[in-house]
Each structure stands twice: as structure tokens, then as C-alpha cells.
Design goal:
The structure is a homodimer of 382-residue chains.
Chain A lengths: L7 H6 L4 E9 L2 H14 L19 E9 L2 E9 L7 H9 L8 E7 L2 H6 L7 H9 L6 E6 L6 H13 L4 E4 L11 H19 L4 E3 L1 E2 L6 H10 L4 E4 L1 H4 L2 H8 L6 E4 L17 H11 L4 E5 L9 H12 L9 E5 L7 H8 L4 E3 L10 H13 L1
Parallel strand pairs in A: 5-6, 5-13, 6-7, 8-9, 9-10, 10-11, 11-12
Antiparallel strand pairs in A: 1-3, 1-4, 2-3
Helix pairs in contact in A: 6-7, 6-14, 7-8, 11-12
């Protein structure tokens, strides 16, 4: 959805201590303003103005501007006092779109924070693009990821896939998000075996590949899973914010060494992006919100595969992930989902080299994973 | 969206050890079947069939039936081996709708589990309707809830609101979901003060009201917040699964005494219910999925307020929350959102007495919260 650039920075510079959210609200300009006023109240007081004690005005959201109508609605900028977020991610989500997500014809299309909030949340990705490149020793070319699958294999089968992927020169080898803690290859047994196999493959290939096991444990087992990962020297983890909660990204970042990669997977996030009249604009969700929570790289479904984002949406997500949002490290966009090695030249041209291309099943298409991986690697080295 | 009843039970009885999900899939019957086959693969292997080792077939999803076309699509039942869920809530969500949520024109409209999965997840609500009624000593009449707000007040102001709500005879007095851990009334200071005030109000009124503080802390502070709540003898907590993660419901249930009420709030869940072509059918999300995770009562936006569910959707949610799904305790439907005391007779007639009516700001309409609460109480005692 196209939208005009609103002068958030201009408004913000005159008001310290407030955060800003832009919502596209369905209706004409007058309706959008009226609904925006109601939304500002909903997301802060959720209480009738006429009965609210004056003291509580310090927590109130307010409409800052209403843009021109486009796509059947108008962009309304609402500001909130930064304290309303409690300087915590779960509460920030409540402020940005908690009840608002349940209202018809409202979509979060932009937001900005204060230096205090960004700092309290930990300044986004610890590594970002430069940090991942440094860790991998790959300064310029596009980066490569693959997924270990299918689920249902035994530990030694998965370890062998990890070994072959490393031997073929893939930079980051992650668990499939479907590969959690099933009895076929329990996390506790899989992680040491796969980590060791990838290290063997790396030694043989001469390029250091890293293992990123999945992070999606039940509550109460987070530290156990982190400990297993850290004890086995993995390169980072594949975190599922849709199922583990957005704050899981921050938690993994904050409880691991400085060079630990936080890689975000989009499973169970599709509710937010399935309509252009509700939810969250994809470039904001993937490019800013998950990055704010700590994602060094964000996976999202690319165009031309089996998912539904348009080329423009995919480009926007990549641009937003890499932009200078709130002074945070840029994150590595990681388009995936039904991509093939044959499409890499086109995708490289489209997304540029600061991209982590993710190809899973298609690397097996030659019948030889090492060859598939090598072909993938050569495609980005050209 | 109307849909025909599909014979899940009939299919299921012949196949032990598999869970079943019904998806409405856009398209004609043939398209729905083809997309259903692709979805069964996506949600399990996410790997090309032709390259998958035979061994991995033990984890594969499969289409069990395709219904007739309605509303521009057909209901497709897919079964998965129960082991695929890892017997954990975060992984169950990945199986049911992880990547599938990102595909166009697919909606989860039903699911059923196995006794092993239900048992491993803890059998749903510990209390349910009967348990909440027993705890409150209210065997028959409809139950009452209110929310402490607006955010921005000081601890003593909020405690006073709690006192007055208890004095007026409200059964469950919860924090507003917007009332997290802001500097105006930090959780650690608010909970003891409000708990004590509600106890004083209860002693004076002669009816035991319970305090339910919000549970939406950052990861790593979950036990701290639970400890504060338990030390202050609260009646339960208001858990926000949209922001804290669905598994937060289970975690709170499993780490508190048997008579602790788990009350689920819908903040940041609207992405799942904003379209009838995507996401999750509201009665399944609120009536079955949150209940499976442990919710004794589920808040959802009622019709006639400022939210968008239809009367039929609201009725369906209530019916599904109370049904005999998987042998779990029924959960108390808790419609809220812009309701008024004047509407209680109509709503009581519509929803029936096994309902927890939630009215927040409107109790202040008389200018006297105690009177507003008493009026609310009388409305359900008639």
C-alpha cells in the first residue's frame, strides 16, 4: 500500500519523551480523525474521557496529525508518552496495537521511539549485518542459509545433512522451525550431534559454517535450551517470535555472548500481514519491530515462491531491515520460501548483496546436498 | 462463516495417535484439495516429497477429507502424527498454522487432539467454570468482572478503585491490560496495595472479591511477577497470550496453586481474527485454543461495543468455550469491550448465566464507582 511520507521526525523533534505510531485508518479524513481520537484513547486509557481524573492525563495518547486519504483511509499519527510502554517489549506491543488489533480497518504502518525506550530495550540487534559478516569472515558477497529437514529423521541423519551443508559451503545452517523437540531427534541429543557434524564439515571445507538450532521451547525451559546451545558452541539460534513471543528475541540476545546470531523465523506471524486493512505493514513488522526486539536477521517469505508477498513488499522489507531506524544496527533481510538456486542471480540483482538467502529443500534437487550447496555458493560468488 | 459439520470424530476413531486440523481453503473443491495437499506438506516436512527419505514419512501430514464448497472455498481436514507437536504448545502452534498463516486464503476453523497431547499439555483449565464458581461461592448467577484503570494513576488511586469495586460486589477485579509496570504504579508496589484494598472492600461487603493483576512481564521476570502475585494472595492473573505468548497461560496455571484463576486477555490477538479468509476462526481461537493452553476464562470483544465481532460470532465463542472439547473443563466466556450496565439484561439473555461479564469504564458513569458496581451486581441478580 502506497502512503505519503508523514513528518514524524518534524513532529517528534518538538516533543521529547513521546513515542509515535502511524495507523492507516479506513474512512474519509474526518472519520479517520474521529477513529484516530478513539484509538489514541483505546491504546492508553481505554476509559471514558469525562470520568478520567486529570492526573491520568500524563499517560494519554493523542492524535498528532491526519494525512490525506489514500487506499480508502488516512494515515493518523498518534503519540504516547514513553512511560506507557513500561520500557518493555510486551507492554510496547500492547501500546502499539493491543486492543487496536481487534478494531476493524486499522493497520499499524509506522512507529518511532525515544532514545530512552530504544536503550532500555537494548538497542536492537547486537550484531546486525556488519557483525554477522565479521563473524563469518565474509565481507562482501551475499550470505547463504539452509534449513535442516525434513522433520522425522533421526539425529544422525540430521547431523549428516548438517555436515554436507557445511562441506558445500553454506554460511548458516539452521534447524527447520518444524524441528523442535520431537521424539525422533530430541533437542538435547540433536544439538551436540549437529554442532559437531557442522564443525567437521567446516574443517574439511575450509570455511567456517555455523549451526543455528531452533529456539521455541515451552516456557520454563528457555534457559535449559540456551545452555544446551551454548555448551555446544553454536553460532546463534533460530527464534520463533510468533510462538515464543516477540520478547524471546531480546531474551536470547541478552543471555548469550556478543557474537551470538539471533535469526527470526516468521512462523505463526501471518495473522499480522494477511490483509492490507489490518495488522501490521510487513516492512514494519519484519524490518523494524522484530529488529527492535533483537533480530540480527529476519526470515520472510519471498515473492515467486508459494507465499503471497509482492516483489515490492519484499523489497520494502529488505530496505526497512537495513535502514537507520532509531540508530540500531541494520538487520540482514533473509528472503526464503520455495526459492531455487536457479533464481539466485535474479534475486541477487533484486535484493542486493546485503542479503541472507535461505534455500532449504531445493538444495536437494540434484540428489546430492553437497553439490546443491556448492552450486548455491557459486551462484552468489559470481 | 457457516460451515458444514465434518466427521472429524469418525475419521479420528480409526486412527490413533494423530491430531486433526480443519482448514477452510479458498478455491473450488479441486483447488482446495491440491492446496490442502501442499499445506499438509508445508506444516510437516516443508520439503519436496520426491527427495524426502522414506523414514521421514512418520512425521508427514496428510489430507483426510475435502468438504463441499462454501463461502468460496472448501474445508479440508489434515491429520498430523501427534509426535510432530513435540507435546508442547509453541510447537503445536507451528504445526497447526506456523507457515500456513503466511499462505493466502487459508483459515484454521477447527482442530482436535489426542488424549496423549491433551494430557501432556495439562488438560486445559485447572478450574474452569465450576472451579471459578466454587472459589467465588457463587453457584448460579452470572459473574462480574471489572478492570482497574485508567493507567497513569498512582498506586493509592488504583487501590482505591479496587476497594470501591469490591465494596460494590464485583467478583473479579483485574488490572487493565494497559496497566503493566509503568513508573506511575509499578507492579511490585501496586499488587500488594491493591490486593490489600480489595480484601478490605470484601470484608466490608461480605462478599469475597478477588484481585487479578496483569501477567505480561518481560521474559526473565515471569517468576518474579508470579512470586509477587502469590505472596499477596491474589485470586489469579490476567494473562496476555498475544504479547507474552500462548504458553504463558500454561506456565501460570502450572506454577500456581490449584485454585488460581487464569484469565486470558485478547490484546494483540486481533491479527488472527480480522478476516474470514485468514487466521483462526474466533470460536476456535478463544473457545478452544486459549482454553487448551490453560485459560479458565477468556475475554473477547462483545458485539454492540466498539469492536467488530457479530452477535453470532460472540455466541459461537461462548458456546465453544463451554463445550466438552477434549474432555477439558469448560471455560467461562467473558465478553467485554464498551459494554454498559444498561445492556446487562439483554446480554444475560443472550449469553446465559455461565458468563463472566466484564465492564470497565462504564461503571464510573454514575460518578460513583461503588454505586456503578452495585448496579452491575443487581442487574445480574434479577
Amino acid at each position: 500500500m502506497a502512503r505519503e511520507a508523514l513528518d514524524v521526525q518534524g513532529i517528534q523533534s518538538t516533543q521529547s519523551g513521546r513515542i509515535f505510531a502511524t495507523y492507516w485508518i479506513e474512512g474519509d479524513r474526518q472519520e479517520a480523525r474521529a477513529r484516530g481520537e478513539a484509538l489514541a484513547l483505546e491504546q492508553s486509557h481505554e476509559f471514558p474521557r469525562q470520568y478520567a481524573p486529570v492526573k491520568a492525563d500524563r499517560s494519554l495518547g493523542r492524535v498528532e496529525s491526519v494525512g490525506d486519504v489514500h487506499d480508502g483511509g488516512a494515515d493518523v499519527i498518534i503519540s504516547y508518552p514513553q512511560e506507557l510502554t513500561a520500557f518493555e517489549i510486551p507492554q510496547l506491543l500492547v501500546v502499539l496495537l493491543g486492543n487496536g488489533s481487534l478494531l476493524p480497518g486499522i493497520r499499524l504502518v509506522d512507529f518511532s521511539l525515544t532514545p530512552d525506550v530504544v536503550k532500555a530495550l537494548g538497542n536492537g540487534p547486537a550484531l546486525g549485518i556488519a557483525g554477522i559478516r565479521k563473524k563469518l569472515g565474509v565481507p562482501h558477497r551475499a550470505l547463504l542459509a539452509t534449513a535442516l529437514k525434513p522433520v522425522g529423521l533421526d539425529v544422525e541423519d540430521i547431523a549428516e545433512l548438517g555436515y554436507e551443508s557445511a562441506l558445500g559451503g553454506i554460511d548458516l545452517i539452521k534447524d527447520d522451525q518444524g524441528l523442535g523437540n520431537q521424539p525422533w531427534a530430541p533437542f538435547e541429543q540433536r544439538v551436540p550431534a549437529v554442532a559437531a557434524a557442522i564443525e567437521r564439515g567446516s574443517e574439511k571445507s575450509g570455511h567456517r559454517s555455523f549451526y543455528l538450532p531452533v529456539f521455541n521451547p515451552p516456557a520454563g525451559q528457555w534457559n535449559k535450551h540456551l545452555d544446551i546451545a551454548l555448551e555446544n558452541g553454536v553460532g546463534g539460534m533460530l527464534v520463533c517470535p510468533g510462538t515464543a513471543g516477540f520478547d524471546a528475541l531480546r531474551y536470547v540476545r541478552d543471555n548469550t555472548p556478543d557474537d551470538f546470531i539471533v535469526y527470526a523465523h516468521p512462523a505463526f506471524l501471518g495473522g499480522w500481514t494477511s490483509s492490507d486493512k489490518h495488522g501490521i505493514a510487513p516492512e514494519i513488522l519484519f524490518g523494524h519491530l522484530l529488529r527492535l526486539a533483537g533480530a540480527d536477521s529476519v526470515i520472510y517469505p519471498s515473492f515467486g515462491g508459494r507465499f503471497s508477498f509482492t516483489p515490492q513488499q519484499c523489497k520494502d522489507i529488505a530496505d526497512f531491515a537495513r535502514d537507520d531506524f532509531e540508530g540500531m544496527n541494520p538487520a540482514l533481510p533473509s528472503p526464503g520460501g520455495g526459492m531455487t538456486v536457479e533464481r539466485v542471480p535474479e534475486l541477487l540483482d533484486f535484493f542486493g548483496p546485503d542479503t541472507l538467502f535461505l534455500i532449504g529443500g531445493a538444495l536437494h534437487a540434484t540428489g546430492n546436498l553437497v553439490e546443491g550447496a556448492q552450486k548455491f555458493r557459486r551462484a552468489v560468488e559470481k
